[in-house]
Design goal:
By secondary structure, this protein is an alpha/beta fold. It is built from four helices and 15 strands. A hairpin with a 5-residue loop joins strand 10 and strand 11. Helix 2 packs across helix 3. It starts with a strand and ends with a strand. The mean pLDDT is about 90.
């Protein structure tokens, strides 16, 4: 929403707003004492490459024979990404247990012993669409998130000033409502995720930062901002600063 100049002071990153992005259509803007310098992001190329040879390549869940951490991960995988298949398997396994216990209780053990259902198996490549976006986050340290595609304004496809190339598309982790983020991560008002280390304290508004701004009528300035530069609001439509 705005550009800012940043510099580390006594080990803490500080920032001064240098220019407001006048394309934002907001009547009232509430400045924050801390801003995100850089969000977590994933190159589309890296995302696609991961699914060319994912590790693990597949999951297998056999309730009869699987134990330990690997079994727990496999069960969680099927619960999350293939719930219908998982529920069907559990239903069949419960029916098997009932039949097997009945067979055991028969003194004559007539007939062959009931057999458990075949183990659940799925390859990671079987995931599709939204499943892949979330699974990637689960595997890459962004648990509780899914990926969304955004335009990366920092990286035009061409460095030629005369070229009208489109900006690149990247993926950004977005927190799923109600989820808990890994330690060291937070999310903004739009649920986009960033590392806690990638923030700066805003301490001032620079010269001409809001000059000529037409879309803002009310500006809420936090008490942490102690400096306002010359002509910061000149020729703007800002009628109230609180």
């Amino acid at each position: 929403q705005f550009e800012f100049f940043q510099q580390k002071v006594n080990g803490v990153m500080r920032g001064i707003i240098s220019q407001y992005n006048n394309t934002y259509q907001e009547n009232e803007v509430k400045l924050k004492a801390n801003v995100v310098m850089e969000y977590a992001w994933v190159e589309v190329e890296d995302y696609n490459k991961y699914y060319e040879s994912p590790k693990p390549e597949k999951y297998e869940f056999d309730k009869e024979n699987s134990t330990g951490n690997a079994a727990a991960k496999a069960e969680a995988f099927f619960k999350e990404y293939f719930p219908d298949a998982y529920n069907q398997y559990i239903s069949e396994y419960q029916a098997y247990e009932t039949a097997y216990n009945k067979w055991l209780s028969d003194p004559d053990h007539t007939g062959e012993a009931p057999k458990p259902p075949a183990a659940l198996e799925r390859e990671v490549k079987d995931l599709a669409g939204e499943q892949r976006l979330k699974y990637y986050c689960d595997q890459k340290g962004y648990e509780g998130c899914t990926l969304v595609s955004v335009t990366d304004m920092r990286k035009p496809d061409s460095d030629d000033p005369g070229d009208d190339a489109q900006n690149s598309i990247v993926y950004v982790p977005r927190k799923i409502e109600g989820a808990t983020l890994p330690e060291g991560f937070s999310s903004d008002d739009n649920s986009f995720v960033y590392e806690n280390s990638q923030t700066a304290s805003i301490v001032g508004i620079g010269d001409t930062a809001f000059e000529g701004t037409r879309n803002v009528n009310v500006l809420d300035v936090p008490e942490e901002i102690r400096y306002i530069g010359e002509s910061a609001f000149e020729d703007s439509f800002i009628a109230k600063i609180s």
